[in-house]
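Researcher: Here's a chain I'd like modeled. Treat it as a single chain, no partners, no ligands.
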Amino acid sequence: MTDAERDDALRAEAVDYAEAKARAGFWSREESLPRAREEIAGLVGPDPAKRGHAFFVGLDDAGDRVGWVWIGPVPGSEPSRTTRWLFQIVVDPPRRGKGYGRGLLQAVERHLQGEGVSELRLNVFAWNSIALALYRSSAYDVLSESERNLEMRKRLSPG
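Model: Modeled as a single isolated chain. Structure tokens:
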């Protein structure tokens, strides 16, 4: 993903994240967008790669874009060579419901395995039944669960 594509993706992500946090009851609608922008900026900083964040565009067999992925260090912990966090996986709206989410997730897992990463963790909102079904059917374990969200993990086999 180019820097311009990443910046565009993060701007859109702030809007989506703000809506999700408000829907889950974490933030009010009024405060959600400024807080989402602030949280994302705090995570990635001025140089996301320097902080261990990576952004990828997903392509289909014809080379057409199907979505994008953001991975990085586990929030709130020291960077680890063996554990990564899946911040976001997005299938572009016209491509949804065709298996591209699963394909993007599998590609991320293979990529991380090749880097020696043994664990991929994530957070998913409890109301997001489509994402929950994907992670559950992809062998992710629930580490913690509340009425609002779940933290999940998948142990990756060596690449």
